[in-house]
Amino acid sequence: MTHPRAQLNPAFTNPLRFSLMATLAGVTEISFKQAREYLQTTDSTLSKHASALEELGYVAVKKSFIGKKPTTRLAMSKQGERAWQDHLAALRAIAL
């Protein structure tokens, strides 16, 4: 039997990515600005990590306009939800 740490998702070992996924797990979607402020990070850092999670299929990045103003919204994808739940299950198994 392998140790539960083998089930941890390496995409979530970065503290900001972990925090972003935890934030997205609690909402349907969130604006980029709200996520940046909540996570207390910079635009460039959040963009980098959100893009990495988007490439893995875990986060959906939705860009649109409100009038002439561009806006970006973040949401957890179904694939991201499954990966997040698996990661949390591995953490629980390690902690028990």
Automatic annotation (TrEMBL):
SUPFAM superfamilies (UniProt xref): Winged helix' DNA-binding domain
Winged helix DNA-binding domain ranges (all copies): 16-94
Gene3D superfamilies assigned: Winged helix-like DNA-binding domain superfamily/Winged helix DNA-binding domain
Pfam families reported in the protein's UniProt record: HTH_34
Protein name: Transcriptional regulator
Originating organism: Corynebacterium testudinoris
